[in-house]
Amino acid sequence: QRGALLAAAPSKQAAAPPGRAAATGDRDRAYDQALRLYRDGKTGEALETAEMAISRWGATAALRTLAGWCRLRGGAVKEAENDFRAALVLDPGAVEPQVGIGYVLLRRGVPRQAEEAFSLAIRRDAGNADALKGLGMALRDQKKYAAAADAFRAVIRAAPDDHEAETLLDAKPATLTVTR
């Protein structure tokens, strides 16, 4: 399973009118709670909390992204993609939803498109370990093994405790069998 670092933070709002300021604080607290639940592996509860915050106080890119990760972990690929794309509408320069789209494309079996999504995320944040790892997987799936290994090494430099990247780097490429 993918170990998302999920660096997305609640979007900061301009000074809100007094009634809206309280709502924004509540939304940010709900996001923080949902993120804790997600990191604890309670993705269903995290999704419920994120959805509640969205329905009560409106969506942010961070809430939509978190909902997308929860859905992707639960296997709801189309719904996850919808959340990631909605996050990008709210914040077109955001990195995490772009990374999420890359993982959606990997799940769909289109590694070339996933490579493009991850490359865009890396152009925005060269040290994003999740984007680097996804890029490595997309390259591996295209049998570009040397480039994949370089990407996994970059993950290890960016996130030395990422054991999944070490495992991916140590894995031998699948051998091609010739059938007669």
Rounded to the nearest angstrom, the distance between the terminal CA atoms is 36 Å
Main sheet record: none
Mean pLDDT: 86
Structural class: mainly alpha
Helix-strand string? HHHHHHHHH
Poorly predicted spans = 1-21, 175-180
Number of strands: 0
Roughly what fraction of the amino acids lie in strands? Answer: under 5%
Number of helices: 9
What is the CA-atom radius of gyration, in angstroms?
A: 18 Å
Q: Estimate percent helicity.
A: 55-70%
Identify the overall geometry: elongated
Can you offer a commentary on this structure?
- Helix content is 69%, strand content 0%.
- It is elongated.
- It is an all-alpha fold and 180 residues long.
- It contains 9 helices and no strands.
- Mean pLDDT is 86; it is low at 1-21 and 175-180.
- The N and C termini lie far apart (36 Å).
Gist of the model:
Helix content is 69%, strand content 0%.
Defining traits:
elongated; 9 helices; 0% strand; 180 residues; 69% helix; mainly alpha
Describe how the helices and strands are arranged.
Blueprint (H helix, E strand, L loop, with lengths): L17 H22 L3 H15 L3 H13 L3 H14 L5 H12 L3 H14 L4 H13 L3 H14 L4 H8 L10
Helix pairs in contact: 1-2, 1-3, 2-3, 3-4, 3-5, 4-5, 5-6, 5-7, 6-7, 7-8, 8-9
